[in-house]
TrEMBL record:
Keywords: Membrane, Transmembrane, Transmembrane helix. Residues 6-48 form the TadE-like domain. The lineage of its organism: Bacteria, Bacillati, Actinomycetota, Actinomycetes, Micrococcales. It comes from Galactobacter valiniphilus. Pfam families: TadE. It comes from the Bacteria. InterPro entries: TadE-like_dom. The chain crosses the membrane at residues 12-35. This is Pilus assembly protein.
Length: 123
C-alpha cells in the first residue's frame, strides 16, 4: 500500500494529456470535413448556376467563390476556376474550388482540399 501513495496525480496528468490530444484530433477532423463539404457544395452549386441557359461558366465560378467565401472566409478560398466543354447532350460546365483547411478552426493551415463538380447545359 505504501508504494502506491501519490500515484493518482501522475496518472491523472497522463490520462488528461491523452484525452486532450484525442479531443484536438477530433476538432481537426471536424474542421477538415467542414472545409471539404463546403468546397463540394460551392463547386456543385457553381456548376449548376453555370449550366443555366442564360449563364456562363464564369457566372458559376463567381457563385462558387461567393459561397466558399461566405462559408469559410475570404482568406480560405485558394482558387476557383470554371471551364465549359461541348458534349453531345449540350455544354458541360465544370467548376473547381480549392480551399484551405484551418488548424483547429482558428488559423489557416498548410493543408488544402479541392472539389470538382460538373453540370450539363441541355440545349
Amino acid at each position: 500500500m505504501r508504494g502506491e501513495r501519490g500515484g493518482a496525480v501522475p496518472e491523472f496528468v497522463l490520462v488528461t494529456a491523452l484525452l486532450l490530444i484525442l479531443a484536438l484530433g477530433l476538432v481537426q477532423v471536424a474542421c477538415y470535413l467542414y472545409a471539404r463539404n463546403m468546397a463540394i457544395d460551392a463547386a456543385s452549386n457553381g456548376a449548376r448556376v453555370g449550366a443555366l441557359a442564360d449563364a456562363t461558366a464564369d457566372d458559376g465560378a463567381r457563385r462558387a467563390q461567393a459561397l466558399a467565401a461566405d462559408a469559410l472566409g475570404e482568406g480560405a478560398v485558394l482558387a476557383v476556376s470554371a471551364s465549359e466543354e461541348p458534349s453531345e447532350a449540350g455544354a458541360r460546365v465544370s467548376v473547381r474550388v480549392e480551399v484551405a483547411v484551418s488548424l483547429f478552426g482558428v488559423v489557416k493551415g498548410p493543408t488544402s482540399v479541392a472539389a470538382v463538380a460538373t453540370a450539363t447545359r441541355f440545349s
